[in-house]
């Protein structure tokens, strides 16, 4: 737990050079990441004039919607379970959840059910997966990393059973509405991402519930002593994450005009995005706003590379380097090596 | 086929094609070999209009397979050769990425967009959007009303010729195992439907149910384990006569599984002419018995030439068929020579 407590900079008592190194690392991360993001936007805008247009920015927002919603789910789990990558909160089943929820939605629609039933089906599927995770972790006490890994495999298997590993195409009024363009010729999905982020941020950052979730994740002992229902809060974070998986599933069906195979490939980008989110917060903790920024960073990188005609395979390499930098800097900043 | 014969004097590459035609005539299955359609690949001597100053968007579903990679690179090279600027993106077989890239490409307003393969229901809404945005849309192996011209092998001929080769090899009777995981991809669906159409008239040929689902990625390993499992279910020699797949990467895994299990009496059939599979067809002891070899380089080049022709105001046929060759144990040498793989 000590590592978790150390995540709050300024609370640690360091001495001499160690303290300075930590402070510098923290400052470089916080200021540097925003500066780097801004520099990136400026660079792409100059190099590819089309980059900084309303239409393109809207497209990037829309293209980031699925990843963003999933990453917000994971962020909630990380907030509630603590940011320790090994022992803390993590939900590896999110990408598979997206796949199964999308498959449920597409199968229901193609079986002739209405949008209402399909939406309920997808959201219920997602939340149920979250509930299974919650039970495995809170009731049976399995480490989240392993529990959600196991659930991920079960869910991916269920998707295969349901779809026979084929593409299930689906079209409905609601799906067409989601995949259409809204005001200012910006994709509806872009509005969905902004509104979804807004609601999640309002709950997590500005309500007592959200504050308690941070307390439970960062100081579980203190939270328990203060009378907070730690187990229920942690369980709730996994159900919320599962719900996000269901929402992302619906968005994915609208984006791809059906459910397709290969949802599992989303896992790594989701984890990367949620982990990156800490560099966009003042106290280097995961936040919903930070997650939106890191989602957009990945989205703008991919988009800018495409506009500059640079191979998009480089994006994954850059993501890897970013993760290394973040982990290295947060480790330094926690003072592991220096103290 | 008719155009190849009727049009002017042949040079270079076309002579090779004619060699392929001669080779094709000698093989067991009637009509196999050089396939051509009404709008067969145009002659090389024709003047191709320049693409100078034109930005041509090239969207590939993936490049992890010999066919895709060769067709993709051939398109990029041809755009450059004709003086245009290619904007090429590869979705690495990730549908979400494919759609994002298409969306951005449409927003970039290129002078033309060429889509290489893809699941129809996934790409079609976006091809329609491109068309609605007044971007001329071309496709390779994607049959859709939203594309001005589709360059493809004649998949009806590929499907029926490969099926006829299979049926003739197994003597018109026996159980066959079928990989049918990509019925949503139009060329695969056509080839599968043609297989069904052929075996309809051979009542003793039976497809083992349930059909197998080939997957991407890990296609080879997956096909290997699926075939190993089904061989255990049908342990008697002769209980399975052949294995069919709509492309040839599952064929690769299936062939390896047959060799590993010592069941080389079973023959495998596939489509695309991937070099590693043609190598197996060449090996007299390998169960790989037939492969419809497409000409991905020619297909990619032809698609871009069609773009150039269209932008120069010429009329295009709805479909442009590029000949494919059915390779078997007897004609494999000629086929590889024709494909310049030898």
UniProtKB/TrEMBL annotation, chain A:
Source organism of the structure: Phyllobacterium myrsinacearum
A Pfam family of this chain: BPD_transp_2
Domain of life: Bacteria
Keyword terms: Cell inner membrane, Cell membrane, Membrane, Transmembrane, Transmembrane helix, Transport
InterPro entries assigned to the protein according to its UniProt record, in alphabetical order: ABC_transp_permease
Entry protein name: Ribose transport system permease protein
Main location: membrane
Presence of the UniProt keyword Thylakoid in the record: no
CDD domains: TM_PBP1_transp_AraH_like (cd06579)
Subcellular location: Cell membrane
Cellular component, GO annotation: plasma membrane
Transmembrane segments: 34-54, 60-80, 92-113, 119-143, 188-214, 235-256, 262-280, 287-308, 314-332
UniProt keyword Cell inner membrane present: yes
Topological category with respect to the lipid bilayer: Multi-pass membrane protein
Residue ranges of coiled coil: none
GO molecular function: transmembrane transporter activity
UniProtKB/TrEMBL annotation, chain B:
Pfam families: Peripla_BP_4
MF terms in GO: carbohydrate binding
Gene3D superfamilies tied to this protein: 3.40.50.2300
PROSITE patterns: TAT
Subcellular location: Cell envelope
Cellular-component GO terms for this entry: cell envelope
Family note: Belongs to the bacterial solute-binding protein 2 family.
InterPro entries attached to this UniProt entry: Peripla_BP_I, SBP_2_dom, TAT_signal
Signal peptide start-end: none
Keywords: Signal
Residue span, Periplasmic binding protein domain: 56-315
Protein name: Ribose transport system substrate-binding protein
